[in-house]
Specification:
Length: 489
């Protein structure tokens, strides 16, 4: 679709940036906080890049006022952050730790006082360790009342001060990494258990949404999903069918449950055939269909390209097959002993010959962003909040104290332009949070892979002085916000 002139961004559009508790806060045992599964996992030798962890991270817990002051200076309209469950309820289900809860109340107040709208994520992967030990984490339904209690504590303490709430961050990613690929806690490699845990999370998500609507009828709540469009390698009908399979496998498996309360049929039947489908009781069905999100959070990094499954495909052999990558949470490709995987008969993931990649091998696909926004809006008819999008890169602090991150500026510019086109197409959007505001800990890539508008002076070996230094992209985004994106053409 070509336009002579693009629509303006809505006046109320929330230009934001995002983070997650474990990646920024540090203070891992301060003021009564209990351990999370990440506090334990990151200490296991060989599990994270150079053994990095979030013990100190960028010490946002102690420096949040300085960080919020920088947000205000930038003119940021929204800041998405997550709450560490074990800071609020150290063992996940017992007494509330008032000091931990107070940190988030103070953060929210500080943001509001500085004209920045807080956007709160309830769960960004740092499950209280006690719940993992006691119940086996998300594999047990016994965790659901604990999650509800935690949500209730936040709904009560923060209430209408936060308008947009996120339930789960990238359920597709943390279940795959944690229960299939063993690259996140609880380091399980078992598909049946993965789909079971995923189902329990769906139930917890539905409970959290229903409770929210009861307690805070003026607020908005929804999940944040790691969405990527799936392309067929070319117009071969077999490859188009493979792309449809991949779409169901990678996207609809979660999005349909969030929005319609049911699992997509072809994928469910495929899992049943393999004996790994989750058990859905009639009561589950009632719960899942009763909980409706008010908007959809979309995290966009890249999609994937597929061709006909490797069992039937005999004609196309000259393309590059995607290798399994332990640090790319999206569209991983099973091989060897993982070959008994449900996607083997469905599709095969290949490199896209039209796309360049980042230093970490992630495809750069701004048009895919527009495709994603349109697909989601056309299918589910809910407003979209982009809750993550950004470029991980190695940034250099120059001798003159500047960081010339033009590569990031180009990346964001191209993606925001496609978002503007999607709005012109007719997609209803609430806002856009770049990942991330400051540099922060990458789960598996330490402090080397940076995303922020603000450089943080630390590396994998040393905390240095943790100084905050605005990068060139900081001033670029500041200018963009001041013009409400009118300069992005
Ligand atoms: C998303 C996560 C974020 C963040 C981002 C970048 O999947 O929700 O928490 O980590 O990816 O990922 P990475 O740090 O692996 O490059």
């Amino acid at each position: 679709m070509f336009y002579e002139k693009l629509d303006q961004f809505p006046e109320s559009f929330l230009w934001g940036a995002a983070s997650a508790a474990y990646q920024v806060e540090g203070a891992f045992d301060a003021d009564g906080k209990g351990p999370s599964i990440w506090d334990e996992f990151s200490k296991i030798p060989g599990k994270t890049f150079k053994g990095t962890n979030g013990d100190v991270a960028i010490d946002h817990y102690h420096r949040y006022k300085e960080d919020v002051a920088l947000m205000a200076k930038m003119g940021l309209k929204a800041y998405r952050f997550s709450v560490a469950w074990s800071r609020v309820i150290p063992d996940g289900e017992g007494e509330i730790n008032q000091a931990g809860l107070q940190f988030y109340v103070d953060l929210v107040d500080e943001l509001i006082a500085n004209g920045v709208e807080p956007v709160l994520t309830l769960y960004h992967w740092d499950l209280p360790l006690a719940l993992q030990t006691k119940y086996g984490g998300w594999e047990s339904r016994e965790i659901i009342p604990a999650f509800k209690k935690y949500c209730q504590a936040l709904y009560e303490a923060i209430g209408d001060k936060v308008k947009h709430w996120i339930t789960f961050n990238e359920q597709n990613v943390f279940t795959a990494m944690g229960y299939r690929w063993e690259t996140h806690p609880p380091k399980v490699s078992d598909l049946k258990r993965m789909y079971q845990a995923n189902h329990v999370i769906n139930l917890a998500n539905a409970e959290a949404i229903n409770l929210f609507h009861d307690m805070l009828p003026n607020g908005k709540i929804g999940p944040s999903f790691g969405y990527g469009p799936t392309y067929g390698l070319n117009a071969r009908p077999e490859n188009i069918l493979a792309a449809a399979n991949s779409h169901e496998f990678n996207n609809s498996w979660w999005m349909d449950v969030y929005c319609k309360g049911t699992y997509p049929k072809f994928m469910y039947k495929q899992l049943e055939r393999l004996g790994i489908a989750p058990e859905v009781t009639p009561a589950d069905h009632v719960l899942l269909t009763s909980a409706k999100p008010d908007f959809l959070g979309i995290n966009y990094y890249h999609g994937g390209t597929v061709r006909e499954n490797r069992i039937e495909n005999t004609s196309e052999t000259d393309v590059e097959i995607k290798e399994f990558s332990a640090t790319d949470p999206y569209l991983m490709q099973p091989k060897d002993e993982q070959a008994q995987s449900p996607e083997i008969p469905m599709f095969e993931t290949v490199s896209n010959p039209h796309l360049k990649t980042t230093e970490w091998g992630w495809e750069i696909d701004p048009v895919g962003f527009r495709v994603a926004l349109r697909e989601v809006y056309a299918t589910y008819d809910l407003p979209i909040f982009v809750t993550e999008n950004g470029l991980g890169a190695i940034d250099i602090l120059e001798e003159d104290g500047s960081v010339q991150d033009d590569v990031r500026i180009n990346y964001l510019n191209e993606h925001i332009l496609e978002m503007r086109k999607a709005i012109t197409d007719g997609v209803e959007m609430i806002g856009y949070c770049a990942w991330s505001f400051t540099d922060l800990l990458s789960w598996l890539n330490g402090y080397k892979k940076r995303y922020g508008f603000v450089y943080v002076n630390r590396d994998d070996e040393s905390e240095k002085d943790l100084a905050r230094i605005p990068k060139k992209s900081f001033f670029w985004y500041q200018d963009l916000i001041a013009q409400n994106g009118a300069n992005i053409n």
